Structure prediction request, 627 residues.
Amino acid sequence: MRLLEVGNVSKSFGNLHALDGVTLDVESKTLTILIGPNGSGKTTLINVISGFYRPDEGNVMFQGRQITGLPPHKIYKLGIARTFQIPTLFWKLTVLENLLVAEKNNPGESFLRSLLKRSWENSEGSAAGKAFKILELVGLSAVWDKPAYNLSGGQMKLLEIARCLMTDAKLLLLDEPISGVNPTLAHEIFSRLIKLRDELGITFFVVEHRLDIALSYVDHIIAMALGNVIASGQPEQVINDPKVIEAYLGG
Amino acid sequence: MALPELVFFGIDIVKFLIDFANLFGLFLAISLTLNLEYGYTGIPNFGKVLYVAAGAVVAGSISLRIAAWVYSIDTRGDLIANSARVVNQANALIKNDSFFAVGIVLLTLVIAALIGAVFGYLSSYPAIKLREDYLGMLLLAVAQFFQIFLRGYEPLIGGTQGISGVPNPYAYWSDLGTGVKDLVSTLVIAAFAILVYLYVERIARSPLGRTLRAIRDNENASRALGKDDVAVRKRVLVVASAISGMAGALLTFNVLSVGADTWTRITYTFWPWMIVIIGGAGNNVGVALGAFIFTALLKGLAQVKFFFQPYIPVDVNWFQYIVFASLLITILMVRPEGILREKPSATLPRSKLQTIFGSSELRDTQIAPKKEVDKA
Prediction:
């Protein structure tokens, strides 16, 4: 089943055609990885899907529903969560608070109901319970009350992923989740993503350069170059594709 | 019954305390709204004076007109020029009119809040979606524009001359003795400041407070996690401006005059900023402490500054600016986060969190987190 369908999406910044008619599908409950040389438009594509950029042309469908041009906060509520290439945490908030912010439709966020503790106390308690489970899952429970700026680089990456898991999102867009993470932890992150895919049925669409680590975990690979999809399919098939090899080595 | 007169070293203690409480209460309320905007949400409101002034203008212009209308006082065609006479007659009548006394305060507060809220919405509208520095500059400019408008446009509050009097709603209590009506005004301000404190603190300790801090820390991440940051910022500005407007109205009823130069960007923009920065942005106790330090210094320096005159090379009236600036710079260098630091939102008590943490069943059912093995 196709969870995400990107159809003929283009996005230009002045004369730079960052995306030039990108068409791709992401199958439900897979871990699909997006590769491509620097400047090939991977992050731009993530920004279009998550609503940060409005495409000049084309459309994005999620679960058969048109989501092109919706603002990020609405796309999030439909079940797409994302991380950023450079960790963008809530720096002065604790690790636990970073997760709790991600809770969807929190009654205590209303300007009136926030004044009545009784109206949000229970949902806050269950959100905290869920947050602690996720923190254990990603191995951050020991630092739950530390402010985010105190974390190590690898922990910051983990916290970004953990925050996304709070949402019960169906699709997670991860922009380089293991860059700057040591190999042991990087393998651990991917094996946990696999676990989440299998146990919770989450679909992952991951931008990643470090194929040496990622390759053994992925179901599909999509390769981009110069704002276009140049290959997609099974891992072996894509990495041996002459166009992919040329994009990485030539040019 | 009159308020007692206690004079030490030429200072009337009762009067001093009443003045102190007025100043502390008003600056506490105004600084708390700035803390909600800047400390929690990251909105750099450099136009705070605008909303305070809007409320003050409402109290000055509306109460005078309503008093003239309700009591059918002859304005001889020019309300502003005859304001002193209208006020005298009105105050004499208010003495026997509890309904008017209470009613005018409540009505003015409601209108001041509404006007403040409208100003908050409109003044920020063009830049609310832009980066925070643009918003800060816009608000600074709008506030300055409003003051220039008030200086030039006399029918509202008499321009730079001001209105030489505002009906005193607390005149109703003047038969109780000298100074009692002033005490009533102070008690109203104190009650207002306490309510504002409880309100802002309630928000700060709720999921909303946490979300405000998240938006402040990272706008993009907050959007990616489902927050409509622009809508939230708008609401915060509207609420904070409404409260600032009410503070301005109470200020007018306290000093009983209003004019375009009653306030400046120093009094109600710079000083609240200084209070928030010194006390600790994002910490309401800190802001209360900052407001207290500020009030104590302002009132204290006013009492003693003339002793310093022989020793300082500038006019003594500038002395307070030197002291405040030095304090601000020192704090920024030594403790940039302010005297009291920001704390987690603590929506649930720590003990409860630990119970939740302990009862988490995950440990048995999921893989236990491996220790990071990058020693060696």
Remarks:
- The mean pLDDT of chain A is 91.
- The first strand of chain A starts at residue 2 and ends at 13.
- Chain A touches chain B through 59 residues (CB under 8 Å).
